[in-house]
Amino acid sequence: MHVKSLEAIVFSHLPFEDLGSLEPELVRRGFAIRTVDAPTARFPIPAAQDCDLLIVMGGPVGVYDATEYPFLTAEIEAVRQRLAARKRTLGICLGAQLMAAALGARVYPGTRGSEIGWFPIQPAGPEPAPGWFAPLLANGLRLFHWHGDTFDLPAGAQRLAGSELYENQAFVVEDYALGLQFHPEVTESGLERWYVGHACELGQKRIPVEQLRTEAYEYAPALLAAATQFWKFWLDYIL
């Protein structure tokens, strides 16, 4: 008897902003992973509607930049259709912003500056977060952030976490959609590609690469351990 393998489609905006620590867990579960280069893709993409999991990754453009980057309009529509069908969708950073826009929420430049580096997140309120999210709320854990935009909480979504600068760091819609403003997927070695790819932004904002590298050496191992546990718990929950 032939058993159909699970399929994950990844909307990628930059090759080096990859699945990181999520990929081994997907492979372990038998997922076939197909990466779509969103800026050059020919939308619509039927597989993005039919797959078992759609993952929308990060990138340096803004949801509101569709005049300069027309693919964003088609990508948001693809995500909107996916969410309207209540199919499993994960968005990370720009991906979470695209999900928020697809759900009708406002996405806009943050008024408290860029959040780039290693910062903790806090539970959204007095109610306990879902058990599968708990590893990312561990005491002393720092998550990696790289964003200047933020978004309003979409209607029907539950806020899971905020940070000192921005209250909407994670949201969930029932059991099929998860948006994460931060980057649980990064690894210490993988971030070396980010420092090169985002060299102009780091220089413009006068953020020393050595500072980010030193912080990664200190905080990335704990994030990897927490994220590995989180991915397992979350995939158990949605599959």
Question: Can you offer a commentary on this structure?
Answer:
The chain is α/β, with parallel strands linked by helices. It has one domain: Class I glutamine amidotransferase (GATase) domain (Rossmann fold), CATH 3.40.50.880. Helix content is 33%, strand content 21%. It has seven helices and twelve strands. An eight-stranded mixed beta sheet has the order 2-1-3-4-12-11-10-7. Helix 3 links the parallel strand 3 and strand 4. The longest helix has 30 residues.
Name its key features.
single chain, 239 residues, Rossmann fold, two-stranded antiparallel ribbon, 12 strands
Topology overview:
Blueprint: E1 7-12, H1 22-28, E2 32-37, H2 46-50, E3 53-56, H3 71-84, E4 89-92, H4 94-102, E5 107-109, E6 115-119, E7 122-123, E8 143-147, E9 149-151, E10 158-162, E11 170-173, E12 177-180, H5 191-197, H6 199-204, H7 209-238
Parallel strand pairs: 1-2, 1-3, 3-4, 4-12
Antiparallel strand pairs: 5-9, 6-8, 7-10, 10-11, 11-12
Helix pairs in contact: 3-4
List the total number of helices. 7
CATH architecture: 3-Layer(aba) Sandwich
Radius of gyration: 17 Å
Cα shape? globular
What is the helix/strand order?
A: EHEHEHEHEEEEEEEEHHH
Strand order of the largest sheet: 2-1-3-4-12-11-10-7
Share of helix, binned: 25-40%
Describe the sheet with the most strands: 8 strands, mixed
Low-confidence stretches: none
Mean pLDDT: 96
SS-derived structural category: alpha/beta
Number-wise, the strands total: 12
Under CATH, the topology can be stated as: Rossmann fold
| Relative strand content | 15-25%
CATH superfamily label: Class I glutamine amidotransferase (GATase) domain
Gap from first CA to last CA: 21 Å
CATH class: Alpha Beta
What is the total number of structural domains?
1
Oligomer: single chain
